[in-house]
Design goal:
608 residues, mainly beta, Neuraminidase, 6-stranded mixed β-sheet, 5-stranded mixed β-sheet, 2% helix, 39% strand
Length: 608
């Protein structure tokens, strides 16, 4: 039988207290109920809603128009089949992805779309910008050309050509070629940019060597000076695969270089080899007479910090234990480092280094492939560091590391790490929760061979399809999932029983309990508050008026317009309690409401 609609409908806000510890342990705890009437749709109005947070014990929706149903929307963790409101049972706050900032949720199929911005390219493998305010994109083609794409155009022009049809410096085939470009952090004041390629046989290099070289821009900002080359570093590399290939300047201004293991897994753990590593060098300082760069004195494997020496292989190393770290990136907001390392038999992985790290991580190839043993055993050098994300070869076969999104065009993706797979064309978004754990969601399944991701100056994302096109990543707002069907609660006693089972126990020995009830109209119609606040002491979930301890305040009749808030403060005298008793706060209606008064009321109990 449907009950008469009364203000807050004899609904009870229950707090249970195990009365043994000081009240300070209870500070900040809260418990919320939301009461929904049928309401009438009216134009949206500006208002600030009370939001649940880590200090809110529970948040419920009580719908008077749907035969008394109650649903939990607290996002709190479950434990042993019961709900621990306001966080896990140890008091930690509920998981909260960084991108949860009041924007539509993000993730799942359809979360992003791809807009083609350039086509007709020859095997594009890298995308970057110069950081000079021009808005240009620079695109690397595997054969040996760097192209420049002006804002608002679709046809790039040649910036530098060191291919076989140009300066004939780049050796191609399988995974060889021109692999990356990075502009000096102070470009164009310092007019240098740096390239990574596999070399043709020459006077200063041998066939297949990995080469890091510096070039300058010409008087034309859209054309490089092809005669300005200065080779900084060469690394012997005879295999036609596992080159690595990424250049990035870090937040510290040093140049970071990723190298593959050269198809010889032992190189990844050998500090005398520069293969299977991320290297870190200072391109603004030379080391006469033989080196046009220097070693940062805080590199983690340096033999002598007082005399860094580019002649020592280990002095270059920032991290080790990689198979083929094809693409890595720095989070422009935090400086954190993300590395996509291509797997062997079974697993593709994303590795991570926080900005607070001083380097020296060992990502454990070939001891492990991802989190699974490969040759087994320990990789003792440095700090063993497992991946934060991985996927098996049912979903792809070659990871392409990406970027953590820091642009503004789709804020629902803010803080999400985008990465993809070259073979399957899938793109995922990785997110970190409040406990530091990473999870991943597939965002889109494409037909592309994803060879690279890139950022523009504003932090917007792009991807390269090896088949010859560049795409801009754009976001699509995703509607939140429908909440699960709530349980039916046929009458008030059952409702009280349900709420009793869902209370959170706060411990105290104080003889006085202070509380604040905040009532806010979050609906679209005015609503009149006229109720009493009462506190009961009981050893079970049955409310008996004889158990009343103290009645503190009657809320004065007040009309709350949409967004309006009323605070009801009170305190209850608590006699010497017995363990296991309940304190129950009850909002008691003093007058019925009419159909025209129906609205959405949020009531929150806080223990200040």
């Amino acid at each position: 039988m449907k009950r008469e609609k009364i203000l807050l409908g004899y609904v009870v806000i229950c707090m249970s207290f195990l009365l043994t510890l000081p009240l300070s342990n209870a500070q900040g705890a809260g418990f919320s109920l939301r009461f929904n009437g049928n309401g009438v749709n009216v134009p949206d109005q500006d208002r600030v809603k009370i939001q649940p947070d880590a200090n809110t014990v529970a948040l419920y929706h009580f719908d008077e128009g749907s035969d008394d149903t109650i649903t939990d929307s607290s996002n709190a963790a479950r434990s042993n089949g019961t709900r621990n409101f306001g966080g896990a049972s140890d008091g930690t706050p509920p998981p909260d992805r960084e991108s949860s900032t009041g924007v539509p949720p993000f993730g799942g199929p359809g979360a992003i779309d791809l807009q083609e911005i350039a086509t007709g390219l020859a095997n594009p493998v890298a995308i970057t910008h110069a950081g000079d305010g021009s808005g240009r994109l620079f695109i690397v083609e595997l054969a040996g050309r760097i192209l420049v794409l002006q804002p608002g155009t679709a046809v790039p022009t040649v910036f530098l050509d060191i291919s076989k049809s140009g300066l004939k410096l780049v050796l191609t085939g399988v995974e060889r070629g021109l692999l990356s470009v990075a502009f000096h952090p102070d470009y164009p004041t310092t007019p240098f940019f740096y390239v990574f390629y596999t070399a043709m046989d020459g006077d200063l290099v041998n066939l297949g060597d990995l080469v890091i070289a510096r070039y300058s821009v010409s008087v034309d900002p859209d054309v490089a000076d092809p005669n300005s080359a200065l080779i900084l570093l060469t690394i012997a590399h005879s295999a036609d695969m596992h080159n690595g290939g990424q250049l990035q300047f870090g937040p510290d201004g040093f140049l970071y270089i990723s190298t593959g293991d050269g198809a010889a897994a032992d190189n990844a753990q050998d500090l005398q080899s520069l293969l299977g590593k991320i290297l870190r060098i200072d391109v603004d300082t030379s080391t006469p007479p033989d080196f046009a760069y220097a070693i940062p004195s805080d590199n983690p494997f340096i033999l002598d910090p007082n005399t860094p020496n580019p002649a020592n292989p280990e002095d270059h190393i920032w991290a080790l234990g990689f198979r083929n770290p094809w693409r890595f990136s720095f989070d422009r907001a935090t400086g954190d480092l993300f590395i996509g390392d291509v797997g062997e038999d079974s697993l593709e992985e994303v590795n991570y280094r926080p900005s607070t790290s001083s380097g020296g991580e060992n990502y454990e190839w070939p001891c492990n492939e991802g989190t699974a043993p490969f040759i087994g055993g320990l990789c003792p050098k440095g700090t063993p560091t497992p991946p934060i994300l991985e996927y098996d070869h049912s979903l792809g076969c070659s990871i392409t590391g990406g970027y953590r999104y820091r642009g503004t065009q789709f804020p629902q993706g803010h803080g999400v790490y985008f990465y993809g797979d070259f073979c399957s064309g899938r793109i995922w978004g990785g997110s970190q929760n409040g406990q530091g754990d990473w999870t991943s969601t597939e965002l889109i399944d494409t037909d592309f061979n994803i060879s690279a991701f890139g950022e523009d100056e504003a932090g917007e994302l792009y991807l390269a399809h090896l088949g010859g096109a560049i795409y801009r990543v754009v976001g699509n707002p995703v509607d939140p999932p429908d909440p699960p069907d709530p349980p039916d609660l046929p009458d008030l006693p059952d409702l009280i029983g349900q709420l009793d089972q869902l209370t959170k126990k706060i411990q105290t020995t104080t003889d006085e309990l202070k509380f604040v009830v905040t009532v806010q109209n979050v609906g679209d119609l005015p609503f009149t508050i006229n109720s009493l606040v009462r506190v009961f002491l009981s050893d079970d979930d049955i409310l008996d008026a004889s158990d009343t301890l103290v009645f503190e305040k009657k809320a004065q009749p007040k009309k709350l317009f949409p967004g309006g808030v009323e605070f009801i403060k009170g305190k209850a005298k608590v006699p010497t309690p017995a363990q296991g008793q309940f304190l129950i706060l009850k909002i008691v209606p003093t007058n019925p409401i009419t159909e025209s008064d129906e609205g959405n009321i949020l009531a929150t109990l806080q223990i200040p």
